[in-house]
Amino acid sequence: MALTKEQIAQRIAKEIKNNSYVNLGIGIPTLVANYIPENINVVLQSENGLLGMGPFPYEGEENPDLINAGKQTITTLPGSAIFDSAMSFGMIRAQKVDLTILGAMEVSENGDIANWKIPGKMVKGMGGAMDLVASAKNIIVAMQQVNKHGESKLLPECTLPLTGVRCIKKIVTELGVYEVDPDGGFRLIERAPGVSLGDIRQATAGKLITDENVPEMAL
Length: 219
Fold this sequence. Notes:
By secondary structure, the protein is α/β, with parallel strands linked by helices. The protein is built from 4 helices and 13 strands. The strands form 2 sheets. The protein has a 10-stranded mixed beta sheet with strand order 4-3-2-1-5-8-10-11-12-13, sandwiched between helices. Strands 7-6-9 form a 3-stranded mixed beta sheet, with no helix packed on it.
């Protein structure tokens, strides 16, 4: 059974290490804030100028002055700090962020990522994605493995304008968890419960590296 967006975020939350600074990108990554394990001390950074971001607010408790980079209302935790975007990007470019979790339109088998522009469609700008992929110590992609037309987004080469080159370490999709092999290829390390290797092969256009006995992920 393919994972929901919430389950993708729940699985990625298991990758967060204690005492780390983590940036959450727009889309599925923002959901990770709701699944941080209670025994983990982590500081979530929002590129529009916030350290100490908490989970999404309950309905009726939203504060319109507190938003993330995707303009969603958020909460803050005790000890949080609010500042301008110049300081925020200074933190990012100085490699103070330990882990970045991003959405993507495409990822190549060499770890390239395209996540900011579709030619011919209006776009406000690249946002902070290029700074994040150039500066983060570790990058995990949270994405749907196939697009609305059923076409794979794990490719031999990206077809859309690149955000970063050879920068992605790990990918979590509705079908599985992959590591980008240093020699190229998507190494399957976990599969979603009930999803077969055949399903995964059909949804992966790039080079797939897998054993016959890949464990199901635990959520």
